[in-house]
Amino acid sequence: MRTQVAIIGAGPAGLLLSHLLHLSGIESIVLESRSRADIEATIRAGVLEQGTMDILTNAGVGARMKAEGALHHGVELAFGGRRHRIDLTELTGKAITVYPQHEVIKDLVAARLAAQGQLLFEVSGVQLHGVDTATPSVSFVHGGEAARIDADFVIGCDGYHGVTRPAMPPQGREDFTRNYGFGWFGILVESAPSSDELIYARHDRGFALVSTRTPTVQRLYFQCDPADHVDNWSDDRIWAELHARLESNDGWRVNEGRIFQKGIIGMRSFVSTPMQAGRLFLAGDSAHIVPPTGAKGMNLAVSDVNVLAQGLEQYYRQGRDDRLQGYTDAALRRIWRAEYFSWWMTSLLHTFADATPFQREMQRAELECVVSSRAMATALAENYVGAF
Ligand code: RFL
Ligand code: PHB
């Protein structure tokens, strides 16, 4: 097989890149290790920045997001028994949309297939060859048969645990990592939303987050030990913990309902640089991870491939590669802003096992500053909606 751009991974990064390239008349093949049903059912992100919505809309894949996504003009910070609203729209002129990542995936898969895009599911043994030459290739197994794609470029969109980052030449690489030592326990609940807007709560027992999915499904999270197991958490224990962390002086309580999905994720910050070497480029979670507190991961994946698609378009249309050469620098400017904000939100709202009493008071004081100072609330709002 021969194509212009071989893309590894059919997450938001890989699928959107393939679609943007198609709109510019550039051919690609996407290789995905999981099945279509699996990628369309994996529960992950929920919050889309205005810029992400604009990119999806301009690419012609925003219709269902607009119709079914919920526009949110504010978020709430809860601590000390009180909730404080941060008015995103008043402070920034922008809003966010809650629309599940797997719905974005469904929209992108449908768009690729409608345009006869080549999407190969359930491939295994992906290996990269000659990425430091002008004729890279990818070998893999599909439907029990060994296969190979010759391409001009290989793009690693295969997430944090993929094979493309380890295939980067080691010289000159620098990785930046922060492990937080805690995770999030996430549940999906059959019940009406408890709140019109997301609630980020700080409590001495740990962080909790009230999010939504649809008018009949809530998405809730609480800070936990990343080594804990979902089987240790009965539904009753989960509700007791959530009620304790979300306690409110005004009598508000989170709505209970049937819990139909439980999972634990670890929290880390990670950036791997540079994001390119020769004809191999990384985009999305394959190059960087943020803790989910800032709701930035999918938004970064989208902005990375938007920059990369412009570089590839310039290469094929004008025969110039200065945009491609500048990809890492252009992408990292936004990535480090999002890394900073995600780290800051995480530090502000979680309990840290090694925090001294002084540090705990500083955290409480900082929260008071954020909700009482318009300047600090504006900084949070600008970062949250991605106005940078
Ligand atoms: P993905 O989505 O991980 O996709 C990578 C794809 O590559 C495939 N793959 C391979 N394919 C072929 N060969 C191999 N060797 C392969 N290895 C892997 C995988 O099967 C997969 O299909 O990466 P991408 O595209 O970079 O997208 C990143 C986002 O998925 C991620 O950043 C977000 O989900 C993060 N995130 C959030 N981001 C937001 O913007 N807003 C949020 O509100 C938000 N909330 C979250 C989140 C992530 C969460 N979890 C579960 C980590 C909430 C949670 C709980
Ligand atoms: C979600 O709805 O899954 C979600 C919302 C906000 C976050 C993280 C996850 O910060």
Automatic annotation (TrEMBL):
Residues covered by the FAD-binding domain: 2-341
Keyword Acetylation listed: no
Keywords: FAD, Flavoprotein, Monooxygenase, Oxidoreductase
Matching SUPFAM superfamilies: FAD-linked reductases, C-terminal domain, FAD/NAD(P)-binding domain
EC number from the UniProt entry: 1.14.13.2
Gene3D superfamilies recorded: D-Amino Acid Oxidase, subunit A, domain 2 (3.30.9.10), FAD/NAD(P)-binding domain (3.50.50.60)
Superkingdom of the source species: Bacteria
Coiled-coil regions listed: none
A GO term, aspect molecular function: FAD binding
Keyword Oxidoreductase among record annotations: yes
InterPro entries in the cross-refs: FAD-bd (IPR002938), FAD/NAD-bd_sf (IPR036188), RIFMO-like (IPR050641)
Protein known as: 4-hydroxybenzoate 3-monooxygenase
Provenance organism: Duganella vulcania
